[in-house]
Design goal:
Largest sheet: 3 strands, antiparallel
Number of domains: 1
CATH topology: Arc Repressor Mutant, subunit A
Number of strands: 3
CATH class: Mainly Alpha
Strand content: 5-15%
Number of helices: 3
Structural class: alpha+beta
Helix content: 40-55%
Strand order of the largest sheet: 1-3-2
Length: 72
């Protein structure tokens, strides 16, 4: 994970800690932000970046999108 920023590394760790490793165990950006203890904008940018890098997947839902790890 050398090409990840510190906030991206934190988000990946938090997703693992929350058990968001399958599409049936997704977590919202709010869940992730609360656990990270960082500003929501920073976490949201990290989620977008990690999605683009193929490390996490975003699942669109009716109320709030969810995220889960694709690989550790």
């Amino acid at each position: 994970m050398a090409d990840l920023s510190p906030i991206e590394e934190l988000v990946v760790k938090v997703l693992g800690d929350l058990g968001a490793t399958t599409d049936t165990a997704i977590r919202t950006a709010d869940d992730i932000t609360k656990k990270c203890g960082r500003p929501k904008g920073l976490v949201s940018n990290a989620l977008v970046s990690l999605t683009q890098k193929g490390l996490i997947k975003r699942v669109a839902r009716e109320k709030a999108a969810g995220y889960f790890l694709l690989k550790k």
